[in-house]
Amino acid sequence: MNAALPLQGLGVVITRPRGAAEALAAALEREGAHAFVFPALSIEPVESSPALEAALAGLETCDLAIFVSANAVELGLAAARRRASWPGSARVAGVGEATAQALRNSGFGEVISPTERHDSEGLLACRELQAVNGSAITIFRGTGGRELLRETLERRGARVTYAECYRRVRPQTDPRPLLEAWSRGEIQAVSVLSAETLENFVALLGAEATPRLAAAALVVPHAAVGAHPLARRFGRVLVAPPGPQGMPGALVSLRMPS
Question: Which CATH architecture has domain 44-169?
Fold first, then answer.
């Protein structure tokens, strides 16, 4: 008889946009988990605008292009390449390993990326982003979001431009099947990547889910998301380590005796 898989029987809700959620669900199910795909965030490309066109035109004299997510890589490169070929002089950087890997998969051999903390703070700590006085930097991102990258790089003397190539929206995901599974005791954990996703998830489920959340663990990529006020509604918060084994490793701890 085969040994039990490490996540055997563990019910996990995956709240990422559908494509990314389905990929993670498949990986967790190979470890024995029962994954529930419940997108609490959707990504939509934005229409061209004068600001976006100006940012893309400026790539010809750009020293560094920063991509904040894999979505920024996919949609930002598509927008840039519709306009012209990628300028050979511009270096690229990714916030986190998933973003860096998306850049490598898109043909970039040299990618600046943090090796420890996989977020904006981690990228800003990289040696290549310290001496940027006078550099032209373009940040590919969604509309809105944190200003830390821009503010820090401008304090270091860089000229920073946003290329906002997508927007994040709350999908109209039906919560009833998920709540029914929860009522049957099939869910023990919820995974969210951002504070916005957490807010959307709680709003989509409504007040009926409050006692369910209190009995479940919330799995987040870094402590900032876990510090969100809505995280207190969960019985436990787990910070997953970076890398592909971070999420399974955090979930394995739920199988251990407390």
Answer: 3-Layer(aba) Sandwich (3.40)
